[in-house]
Amino acid sequence: MKISLFILIIFGFLLTTACQKASTQVVLQTIKFQSETLNRAVGDNLQLTPIFTPSVFSSIDVVWSTSNDAVLTIQPDHTIHANKAGSAWITVKDKNSATAGKCLIIVN
After folding, report:
1. Is position 45 within any domain?
2. How many other CB atoms are there within 10 angstroms of residue 2's CB atom?
3. Short-list 53, 106, 52, 62, CA closest to 80
4. What DSSP line would sit under 51-78, residue for residue?
5. Angle (CA) 73 75 76, round 5°
6. Does residue 76 belong to any structural domain of this protein?
7. Domain that holds residue 58
């Protein structure tokens, strides 16, 4: 009787674990821009739109930054202003991972 009960418990455990749906976690793979390098004139404003892969991440919170705020500044609405001649990287980074995309902007 004990063996039958033990086998029944094992069978029930295997049945419930085998029927559970495996979770599939979607992970942000890349962030990039339409172009890796852009040329702009002093005084120009531009909007960059990050491209997320997979696209389901297109509405995630990201952090915008510039490598040289004397050349390029980023406004609160993410408009980028070309202040003076030079070059700078604009980086968009996912707040929850190390995934980031960069665009080099050369200001003439």
Report:
1. yes
2. 6
3. 106
4. EEESGGGTTS-EEEEES-TTTEEE-TT-
5. 145
6. yes
7. 24-107
Dig out the tokens for 25 from the structure: 């976690």
Residue whose entry in the numeric block shows the structure tokens 């960059």: 48
pLDDT digit string, tens, across residues 71-106: 999 999 999 999 999 999 999 999 988 999 999 999
In sequence order, the β-bridge partners of residue 107 are 40, 86
What backbone torsions phi and psi does residue 64 show, to the nearest 5 degrees? -100, 140
Give the tens place of pLDDT for each residue, 6-63: 666 776 666 666 556 666 888 899 999 999 999 999 999 999 999 999 989 988 889 9
Within a domain: 40: yes
6, part of any domain = no
CATH of residue 78's domain is 2.60.40.1080
Only one residue has tokens 């979770």, namely: 23
| Number of domains present in the structure of the chain | 1
